[in-house]
Amino acid sequence: MVHLSCSDFLPSFLLLRLTLLILLVSSKTKGLVKLPADVSVPAVFVFGDSVVDTGNNNNRTTSFARSNFPPYGRDFQGGIPTGRFSNGKVPSDLIVEELGIKELLPAYLKPNLQSSDLITGVCFASGGSGYDPLTSILESSMPLTGQVDLLKEYIGKLKELVGENRAKFILANSLFVVVAGSSDISNTYRTRSLLYDLPAYTDLLVNSASNFLTEINELGARRIAVFSAPPIGCLPFQRTVGGGIERRCAERPNNLAQLFNTKLSKEVDSLNRNFPNSRNVFINVYDPLLDIITNYQKYGYRVGDTGCCGTGRIEVAILCNSFDSSCPNVQDYVFWDSFHPTESVYKRLINPILQKYLYQFK
User: Fold this and answer.
1) Is position 50 annotated as part of the catalytic site?
2) Is 337 a known active-site residue?
3) Any bridge partners for residue 47, and if so which?
4) Which of 2, 55, 221, 235 would you call most buried, defined as having the most Cβ atoms within 10 angstroms of its Cβ?
5) Is 340 a catalytic residue?
6) pLDDT tens track of the chain, all 362 residues?
């Protein structure tokens, strides 16, 4: 007797799609956030800078903005540095985990990226990138225009995997997350300030952000979360270079961030008028993060003005390396290095943010 399997009846491309569907269902995690009625999020796509980069800069050997070496990843799975700018997970991972999609959001440029990962989302972000085109040049990182090019490439691959109709459904119902502006304000404005005052520079950033958001809307994105700039002046590095002897929060970066956020919020609202079928949502992270930094003891932290790595005052990226000692208990710290919060802080931010804003994507 000849025993036939389903593969004897199904064309190879249908069998591939069936296999991917099985992998997709089996790989889901238990979500912690309750989605609004009639809302499903099949995938997450992330763009931006080092706050959300999950390893796309690993092979950019000329870039300062890399973190695929110890002590980065100290508290990640197996203590392995993966290119995430933290001691553990970053917001990209926590978003997909909270939504019950999967545990980690892989970098699109990850060498061994699986086809099943394409269906449930990837990260296009590049550490050191920003809305200002000059930022990625100074940091040797991938600009937002390059990240859009990767999205276009990704869409082609997705259509091959699941077909054009399903690909359109995934793009229209997935969450697109944009996190940028920190590198522009913290690093690039020092160069731009010779030609731009604060209002002019924030206009440059918002115009660039608008062009980027318009393009991904035109490519099929319908749910776009645009994160505000954080309180840049309160990062340990900015306290060191602009906070005086007492290392207070530096005023100019915070003023720049606040002005930028006000203009970006208005621009995001205007995009919804241009794209009535989309939900572009401005996400305020400035205030909740500032509250944690300012009232760190209320949240159970012992140190709010320096990072865990090295002295915690200037070390970030390649300056935070295995030659530097790191703090014995990272749970005491708001910041991992002089620029990026710890995984613990990200966890405190992401769940409330999702709870607060998800209903706006209905």
Assistant:
1) yes
2) yes
3) 178
4) 235
5) yes
6) 434 444 443 444 444 444 444 444 444 566 677 777 777 899 999 999 999 999 999 999 889 999 999 999 999 998 999 999 999 999 999 999 999 999 999 999 999 998 889 999 999 999 999 999 999 999 999 999 999 999 999 999 999 999 999 999 999 999 999 999 999 999 999 999 999 999 999 999 999 999 999 999 999 999 999 999 999 999 999 999 999 999 999 999 999 999 999 999 999 999 999 999 999 999 999 999 999 999 999 999 999 999 999 999 999 999 999 887 899 999 999 999 999 999 999 999 999 999 999 999 98
Amino acid in the structure at residue 276? P
The closest alpha carbon to 249, from 265, 264, 231, 263, belongs to 231
Residue 218: both structure tokens together: 């035109």
Q: Which residues, 6+ apart, have CB-to-CB distance to 338 below 8 Å?
A: 235, 236, 237, 240, 306, 307, 309, 312, 313, 314, 315, 316, 320
314 neighbors 259 (Cβ within 8 angstroms): no
Catalytic residue among 49, 53, 93, 337: 337
Indicate the domain borders of the chain.
Answer: 41-285+351-360
8 A C-beta contact, residue 90 and residue 84: yes
- Name the catalytic one among 50, 86, 183, 278: 50
Catalytic residue among 63, 208, 340, 344: 340
Handedness of CA 344, 186, 63, 175 (dihedral sign): positive
Show the tokens assigned to 106: 């892989």
> Which of 288, 262, 299, 264 has its CA nearest to residue 352?
288
Q: Write the CA distances from 231 to 51, 291, 324, 335, integer angstroms.
A: 13, 10, 26, 13
pTM, whole model, 2 decimals? Answer: 0.91
